[in-house]
Inverse folding.
């Protein structure tokens, strides 16, 4: 590591060294270069240092800047002054005049162009100064660009460029020919060459012209040809041999859908529409088949179905066996004629089967709906896709289809004869107007079919199909709740099981239904629960009717009951607590209902792990009741259970009874409607209670701090149970429950301490900026005024600057004038001097002459 | 002036009442009554008919009562009927302008007896109406009798009827309570009561109960005394001292005969004592024995009421009762939530534990016990108790170690040292414990309770909670509050149930053979 680093450092140094120029004096500054003379620098002193201000004037070079200014003036005003009273001007046309052709580069041409342009601008008046679209023609070699464009040959000109010179054969012969042609003299050879060249050129020109002519011709005829071309291709297609199986398969594989994008693209409205259309379509097909049924041969055998068959598209009506004895028949009947109907047939048939008794009503309805969609047969092809999709969107039906027993085959064959006159559930069902209509409608069907009826009503009246349906589905939900009430309010031992099954199958549909308009329907359910509570409140010593408990269960199934506060779950919780803590427990029904509520309450809290105290009290009560007590013996227990008397030992089993043979059994629906308590029930109830205890403390409560307080009261009670009287499984459950309770009851807890408080942060002292700066020297002004003042200030400063400049200009000019004056004065003085000199010389000469004359005279 | 305005007021009230009555009375009857009143010689036959109608009411007994009231008032005004008092002094032969009609008199008495029989009626309207008519007739009699004497005999007959009713005449008593706000009625009732006391409370518990119920409506409180309402005329007099003497007399009668009575009557005696008698007794200290016996011999509500009585004595008479806290402590047990007087218990406990000079371990035991009970109690009581615990922690700052243990102890995990079964709160070892129950209560399914229990996580509030407003809350109120919440976000389960069972965490179908 260290070595490597060293090395890399060394490399860097080396490379730096190598990168440097060899001459160390390259970077040295020459003595004569720009270097400030310290005496030239003038430093402006700053009184205060102000942060954030960029100061440009801290040091100045007065000499330099004065020289600059002078120079600038000399170039501008000086020049003007020189030509002040002059009428002629000097013009320079010489941009690049002395340059040769090669040296005339683009930049020079541009400079000329610019100069020309400038002169034009100067010459022209101001109005034309900003005229953008002046029609100035650009030329190239005397031709305007437009003209050049016009005569350009469209054809590519590179062909012309190809070997302008001599061809290789000739040159090789001419240059390195050798002795054979040497005899020919040079003159003839050259002439021959020239003629040859000319001929070749001619040929090429001729060819080119020909090609050009042909092209022109082709272009002209193109339109005529076009139609011919199209025809030809089509013919070709027709002529193609029919694709064989392999080709088909290949094509299929190529075009096989690779993803289900279409699912996402379809809007929910469209889906609902498709669903409704599908149902209608199915209804039509069903009607058609019903008529055609007589003509079909009926002795066909069910084809072999492999064990791996996925049963896609088959539909079973429910879990009951009798509803399943279907299949086969229609699959055969319609197999050849309509492929796409294959999927839905069995579904219908299954419905047909279980509906022997209700022919008449069905017929009537069928007639009604026949008219609705008689002409949608042609759409059967288009329907294929939607069918596939629809089956995908019915996971519930799919899942129910799976257990299709094979044994029903023979049965179904027996029934075939009667099927021809059977009716079935129509695919489109109108929304019943009143509750009476609704019950009437449902009364026609068996419980299993009622579910399908409800499902279809929901589908046919989907709110996305029509706005009116929005109200209808809410109404339907109300009807269903009412129907549940009617079913359970006075259910008997016999039918309670089937009622439970029906509700069980309705659950998914209730779920879907509520999702159509969550607010409205939830409010409906809430109103129902409110009503039930108001009823219960009148006499809270008696358990409410069974339907109330079913509503609880619906709440549990449909809503997220784990919320801390939920508009439906919380009132239900309070209701349950009230019920469990107040209602008297005196009969088998009471006990069963209490246990039912306990289980529902546990479901409510299964995720949130929240506790309802009444549950524990109730379970204590159950265990308490199972303890056999002697006369006058009292075991402490809180109401609604009684400490003594006959009701305190309802579930105690007599010593004589033989319970050992009893099998483990869940609580029965019948318990909810029966009053008398038998030994079976006693064992069952206690067993369930023990299992419940174990589950509660294992899964829900065990982890809470303070769970020991809930578990501890159970222990003395359980101790008192006479376990030897109970069957094996109860004893085992009891032992398990006891061990769980014990472990929870011995829970150790940390003493409570509030979470450590965070240390309070010190107050940070930040400078407080005040937005409003009140400068007293200057009165506050409005924005407009301020702007104006600023501008005025600027003008003032600019004026000052301008005045100063003008003064300096005048000074400069005066200086110039003075210099001129001095110069001219000097010249004049020189001249005068010279003249005087000359004159004096002349005078001298004259005097000389005169003296000489005088002398002569003498 | 004041009298005038009072009169005006009562006049207005009467008018309103009349209107109400009219609405009740069928038109045919009204017509009949009008005809009867308009005929100058009294049509005795018609009167008889109407009284008979009252006797076997097929419909609208209240209407008939009101009609008869109007008729008889009119007759009294015309002096066709002599009042009860007048009859007595008829022998004195005070010449009257018009002799009372004998038949009218008979019918009048008959109507009275029927009305009195109606007092015991279970229907609220009829019993109440009957009592109202009776009192109005009394007023009319007093007004039109020559001597202006109070028709005490009539009142006596009413009281007798009330006492002798088979079932407790709650409706009539409620109506009677309104009239007992008038001081004259109050005084005369007290005057009459000693004579009406049932022979034996033990043998006839029903009569005793009714008798006590009547005493229970006789309110001698300050508001009533200050109101100075009178049933008959402004000239009636009221003397508090005299009434108080009468009250004492009544009470001594009651206490003398209430040896070995059954629980219901005993409870009623205590209620009457606490509510009506105790503040006006001359010598309340004499009650100590009675209250102590009640406290020690009985459980539940009687003991509670007795404790309240003792508390009053401790306050006013300065008696000492060392075991009072232990008694109170042992009154807190799960069954008490199903007790009629649980609000009284909370109220008492709140007062008893107000003192800041109580030993800490005693108060800690109370806090612990309340917390334990909150785990078993109905929702509304849980809230009260959590708030109460919070108040206790505020009053006794030393108790805050129950929710914030000191640093050294907070490390080790322990089993709760508090002994629930210990009868003596001081020995229960609560101070070494912590309020883990409140941590568990934070997991309560009802959000109100869970929120209330969260106080241990935050710094304690500055002021104590006001418990009195909470004491009135019932379980249904919590439900109503929950339902009334404006913002409703119905969150749905994200899993679609395919049948009765939940897709996950299913419990119902695990224990029920439903699918």
């Amino acid at each position: 590591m260290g070595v490597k680093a060293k090395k890399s450092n060394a490399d860097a140094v080396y490379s730096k060294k190598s990168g440097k120029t060899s001459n160390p004096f390259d970077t040295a500054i020459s003595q004569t270069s720009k270097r400030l003379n310290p005496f030239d620098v003038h430093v402006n002193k700053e009184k205060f240092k102000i942060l954030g201000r960029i100061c440009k004037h801290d040091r100045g070079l007065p000499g330099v800047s004065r020289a600059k200014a002078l120079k600038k003036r000399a170039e501008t005003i000086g020049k003007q002054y020189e030509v002040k009273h002059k009428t002629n001007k000097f013009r320079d046309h010489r941009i690049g005049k002395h340059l040769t052709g090669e040296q005339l580069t683009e930049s020079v041409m541009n400079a000329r162009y610019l100069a020309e342009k400038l002169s034009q601008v100067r010459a022209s008046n101001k109005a034309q100064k900003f005229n953008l679209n002046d029609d100035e023609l650009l030329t190239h070699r005397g031709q305007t660009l437009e003209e050049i464009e016009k005569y350009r040959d469209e054809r590519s000109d590179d062909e012309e460029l190809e070997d302008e010179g001599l061809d290789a054969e000739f040159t090789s012969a001419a240059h390195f020919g050798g002795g054979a042609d040497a005899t020919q003299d040079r003159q003839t050879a050259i002439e021959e060459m020239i003629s040859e060249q000319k001929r070749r050129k001619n040929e090429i020109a001729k060819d080119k012209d020909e090609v050009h002519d042909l092209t022109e011709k082709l272009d002209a005829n193109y339109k005529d040809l076009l139609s011919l071309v199209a025809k030809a291709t089509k013919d070709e297609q027709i002529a193609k041999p029919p694709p064989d199986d392999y080709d088909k398969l290949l094509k299929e594989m190529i075009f096989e859908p690779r993803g289900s994008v279409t699912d996402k693209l379809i809007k929910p409205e469209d889906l609902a529409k498709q669903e409704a259309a599908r149902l209608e379509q199915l209804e039509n097909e069903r009607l058609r088949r019903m008529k055609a049924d007589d003509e079909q041969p009926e002795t066909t055998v069910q084809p072999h179905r492999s064990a791996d068959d996925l049963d896609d598209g088959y539909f079973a009506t429910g879990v009951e066996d009798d509803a399943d004895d279907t299949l086969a028949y229609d699959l055969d009947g319609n197999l050849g004629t309509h492929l796409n109907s294959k999927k839905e047939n069995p579904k219908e048939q299954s419905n047909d089967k279980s509906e022997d008794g209700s022919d008449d009503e069905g017929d009537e309805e069928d007639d009604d709906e026949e008219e609705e969609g008689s002409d949608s047969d042609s759409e059967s092809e288009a329907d294929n896709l939607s069918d596939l999709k629809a089956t995908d969107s019915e996971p519930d039906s799919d899942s129910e289809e799976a257990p299709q027993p094979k044994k029903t085959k023979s049965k179904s064959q027996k029934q075939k004869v009667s099927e021809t006159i059977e009716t079935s559930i129509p695919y489109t069902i109108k929304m019943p107007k009143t509750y009476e209509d609704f019950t009437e409608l449902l009364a026609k069907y068996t419980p299993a079919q009622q579910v399908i009826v409800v499902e279809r009503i929901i589908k046919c009246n989907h709110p996305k199909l029509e706005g009116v349906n929005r109200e209808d589905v809410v109404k339907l939900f109300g009807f269903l709740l009412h129907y549940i009430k009617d079913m359970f309010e006075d259910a008997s031992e016999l039918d309670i099981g089937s009622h439970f099954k029906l509700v069980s199958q309705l659950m998914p549909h209730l779920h879907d239904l509520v999702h159509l308009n969550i607010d409205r329907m939830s409010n409906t359910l809430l109103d129902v629960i409110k009503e039930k509570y108001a009823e219960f409140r009148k006499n809270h010593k008696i358990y409410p009717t069974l339907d109330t408990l079913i509503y609880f269960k619906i709440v549990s199934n449909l809503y997220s009951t784990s919320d801390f506060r939920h508009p439906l779950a919380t009132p239900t919780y309070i209701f349950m607590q009230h019920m469990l803590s107040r209602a008297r427990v005196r009969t088998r029904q009471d006990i069963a209902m209490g246990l039912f509520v306990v289980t529902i309450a546990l479901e409510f809290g299964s995720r949130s792990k929240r506790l309802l105290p009444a549950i524990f009290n109730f379970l204590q009560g159950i265990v308490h009741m199972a303890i056999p007590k002697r006369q006058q013996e009292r075991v402490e227990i809180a109401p609604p259970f009684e400490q003594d008397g006959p009701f305190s030992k309802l579930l105690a089993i007599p010593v004589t009874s033989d319970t050992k043979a009893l099998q483990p059994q869940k609580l029965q629906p019948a318990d909810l409607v029966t009053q008398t308590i038998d030994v079976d029930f006693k064992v069952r109830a206690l067993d369930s209670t023990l299992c419940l205890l174990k589950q509660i403390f294992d899964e829900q409560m065990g982890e809470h701090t303070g769970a020991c307080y809930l578990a501890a009261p159970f222990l003395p009670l359980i101790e008192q149970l006479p376990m030897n009287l109970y069957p094996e499984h109860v004893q085992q459950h009891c032992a398990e429950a006891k061990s769980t309770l014990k472990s929870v009851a011995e829970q150790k807890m940390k003493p409570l301490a509030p979470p450590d408080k965070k240390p309070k942060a010190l107050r940070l002292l930040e400078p407080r900026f005040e937005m409003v700066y009140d400068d007293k020297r200057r009165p506050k002004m409005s924005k407009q005024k301020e702007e104006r003042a600023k501008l005025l200030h600027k003008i003032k400063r600019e004026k000052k600057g301008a005045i100063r400049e003008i003064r300096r200009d005048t000074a400069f000019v005066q200086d110039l004038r003075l210099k001129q004056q001095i110069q001219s004065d000097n010249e004049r003085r020189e001249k005068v001097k010279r003249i005087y000199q000359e004159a004096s010389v002349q005078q001298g000469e004259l005097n000389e002459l005169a003296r000489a004359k005088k002398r002569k005279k003498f | 002036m004041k009298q005038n305005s009072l009169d005006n007021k009562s006049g207005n009230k009467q008018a309103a009442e009349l209107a109400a009555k009219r609405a009740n009375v069928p038109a045919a009857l009204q017509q009949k009554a009008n005809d009867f009143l308009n005929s100058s010689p009294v049509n005795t036959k018609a009167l008889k008919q109407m009284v008979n109608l009252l006797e076997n009411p097929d419909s609208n007994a209240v209407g008939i009562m009101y009609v008869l009231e109007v008729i008889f008032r009119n007759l009294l005004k015309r002096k066709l009927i002599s009042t009860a008092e007048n009859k007595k002094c008829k022998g004195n032969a005070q010449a009257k302008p018009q002799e009372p009609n004998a038949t009218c008199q008979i019918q009048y008495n008959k109507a009275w007896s029927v009305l009195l029989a109606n007092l015991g009626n279970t229907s609220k309207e009829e019993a109440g109406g009957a009592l109202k008519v009776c009192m109005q007739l009394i007023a009319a009699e007093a007004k039109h009798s020559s001597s202006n004497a109070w028709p005490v005999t009539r009142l006596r007959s009413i009281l007798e009827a009330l006492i002798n009713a088979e079932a407790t005449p709650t409706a009539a008593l409620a109506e009677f309570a309104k009239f007992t706000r008038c001081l004259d009625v109050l005084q005369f009732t007290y005057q009459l009561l000693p004579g009406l006391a049932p022979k034996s409370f033990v043998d006839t518990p029903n009569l005793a109960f009714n008798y006590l119920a009547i005493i229970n409506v006789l309110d001698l409180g300050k508001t009533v005394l200050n109101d100075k309402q009178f049933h008959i005329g402004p000239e009636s007099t009221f003397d508090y001292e005299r009434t108080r003497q009468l009250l004492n007399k009544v009470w001594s009668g009651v206490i003398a005969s209430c040896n070995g009575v059954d629980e219901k009557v005993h409870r009623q005696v205590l209620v009457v004592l606490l509510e009506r008698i105790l503040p006006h007794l001359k010598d309340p200290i004499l009650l100590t024995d009675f209250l102590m016996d009640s406290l020690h011999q009985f459980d539940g509500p009687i003991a509670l009421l007795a404790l309240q009585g003792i508390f009053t004595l401790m306050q006013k008479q300065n008696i000492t009762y060392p075991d009072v806290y232990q008694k109170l402590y042992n009154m807190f047990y799960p069954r008490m939530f199903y007790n009629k007087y649980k609000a009284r218990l909370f109220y008492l406990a709140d007062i008893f534990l107000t003192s800041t000079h109580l030993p800490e371990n005693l108060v800690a035991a109370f806090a612990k016990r309340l917390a334990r009970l909150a785990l078993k109690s109905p929702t509304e009581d849980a809230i009260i108790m959590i708030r109460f615990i919070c108040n206790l922690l505020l009053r006794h700052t030393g108790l805050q170690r129950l929710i914030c243990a000191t640093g050294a102890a907070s490390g080790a995990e322990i089993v709760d040292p508090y002994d629930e079964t210990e009868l003596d709160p001081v020995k229960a070892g609560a101070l070494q414990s912590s309020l883990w129950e409140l941590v568990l209560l934070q997991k309560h399914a009802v959000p109100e309770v869970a929120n209330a229990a969260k106080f241990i996580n935050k710094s304690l509030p500055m002021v104590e909670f006001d418990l009195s407003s909470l004491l009135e809350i019932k379980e249904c109120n919590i439900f109503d509050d929950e339902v009334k919440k404006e913002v409703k976000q119905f969150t749905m389960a994200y899993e679609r149930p395919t049948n009765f069972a939940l897709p996950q965490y299913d419990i119902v179908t695990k224990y029920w053979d439903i699918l």
Chain B touches chain A through 69 residues (CB under 8 Å). Residues 357-407+415-487 of chain B form one domain.
